[in-house]
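User: Could you go from structure to sequence for me? I need the amino acid at each position, not a summary. Structure tokens:
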């Protein structure tokens, strides 16, 4: 399938989703939202996908929402926002709940909703020239794309509040200190390092990784008793998988496990 604003290819268990509209700043617009929704459905249902690697072509990762699309019909903007977010937010949910973890490789400016999407990644690797811009308050808008949730989970409520309300732009090192980024690396090493991390994750046990991803989604909202029961139920499901048996057998034999996703 052809997607709008990005391409997807799957190689050795890694789904590489690459933003490919650098001339426009890799924006989020209506067609992008619809395409991301469809891509999320396909990726979440494809057992061959063991990790999702998000990257972008061009000097900027993304300038976020397409302002020109907003200005095209200001009277219809409220309706259009409901249409766009219906697709975009569905994609966010599908990507967060799938087994495959997400790695993002960010260079240059990463702003608005795209920064929020990146914040939802399991691992964020930033080039030294990366900058993360809240952007919303600067144009008089509130946030979307899961930003209120993802920033809070990564940076904590207080730091996320300051970032959004003061419309901050963080350098790569500032983002690292705030918890928004997991690793900062030289720009020329960004893609290689991101692929290295994605490859490591792709070799892991997908069902177990998926259960842990979903458990972390509820960790801050559930009571202790509820969360412990969710852990017990997830672990019970995993105990019957071939990968769990392989992990135990390999550990006992002092060899590296080979996880097949079953």
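Assistant: Here is the amino acid at each position, in order:
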């Amino acid at each position: 399938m052809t997607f709008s604003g990005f391409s997807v290819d799957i190689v050795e268990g890694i789904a590489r989703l690459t933003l490919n509209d650098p001339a426009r700043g890799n924006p989020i617009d209506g067609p992008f939202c619809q395409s991301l929704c469809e891509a999320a459905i396909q990726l979440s249902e494809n057992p061959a996908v063991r990790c999702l690697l998000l990257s972008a072509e061009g000097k900027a990762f993304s300038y976020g929402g397409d302002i020109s699309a907003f200005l095209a019909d200001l009277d219809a903007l409220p309706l259009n926002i409901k249409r766009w977010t219906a697709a975009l937010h569905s994609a966010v949910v599908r990507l967060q709940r799938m087994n495959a973890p997400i790695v993002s490789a960010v260079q240059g400016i990463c702003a608005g909703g795209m920064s929020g999407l990146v914040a939802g990644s399991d691992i964020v690797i930033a080039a030294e020239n990366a900058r993360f811009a809240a952007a919303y308050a600067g144009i008089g808008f509130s946030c979307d794309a899961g930003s209120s949730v993802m920033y809070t989970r990564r940076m904590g409520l207080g730091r996320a509040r300051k970032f959004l309300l003061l419309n901050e732009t963080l350098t790569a090192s500032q983002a690292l200190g705030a918890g928004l980024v997991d690793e900062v690396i030289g720009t020329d090493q960004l893609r290689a390092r991101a692929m290295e991390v994605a490859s490591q994750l792709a070799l892991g046990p997908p069902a177990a990784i998926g259960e842990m991803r979903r458990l972390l989604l509820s960790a801050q909202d559930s009571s202790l008793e509820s969360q412990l029961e969710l852990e017990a139920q997830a672990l019970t499901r995993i105990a019957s998988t071939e990968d769990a048996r392989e992990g135990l057998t390999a550990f006992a034999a002092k060899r590296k496990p080979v996880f097949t996703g079953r």
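One structural detail worth keeping in mind: The mean pLDDT is 96.
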